[in-house]
Amino acid sequence: MSLPLILGAVWVIASAGVAMLPMRQQMLPGLALLIAAPLLLIWIGVVHGWMWLAFGAFAFVSMFRRPILYFARKALGLPVHDPRQPVPEGGHE
């Protein structure tokens, strides 16, 4: 197995571990994983081809859909809910 795929597997295990942490403790390691993912995916794509890149990108977006939506809304100037704050009554964000 190539080094990019080994590091990809380690990334997946690290992401699953971070997901088990309480939300307040997820921020810093989750942000590091969020930043590292595109670099790792590009490396996998260069070594193994675009199909593996597409598969990895789909898995990445599936795992990090909430943070990606949060940062996209923030970048577009739309209202966002701070995950460190409690959810308002009624359970809606």
Task: Tell me the layout of helices and strands.
Elements: H1 3-19, H2 23-48, H3 50-63, H4 65-75
Strand content: under 5%
Helices and strands, in order, run as HHHH
Largest sheet: none
Binned, the helix content reads over 70%
Tally of contiguous helical segments: 4
Kindly state the number of beta strands: 0
- Secondary-structure-based class equals mainly alpha
Mean pLDDT: 86
Low-confidence stretches: none
Report how far apart the termini are: 43 Å
Short description, anyone?
This protein has 93 residues and is mainly α.
Could you characterize the architecture of this molecule?
This protein is mostly helical and 93 residues long. 73% of the residues lie in helices and 0% in strands. It is built from four helices and no strands. It has helices at 3-19, 23-48, 50-63, 65-75. Helix 1 (3-19) packs antiparallel against helix 2 (23-48) and helix 2 packs antiparallel against helix 3. The radius of gyration is 15 Å and the shape is globular. 8% of the residues are buried.
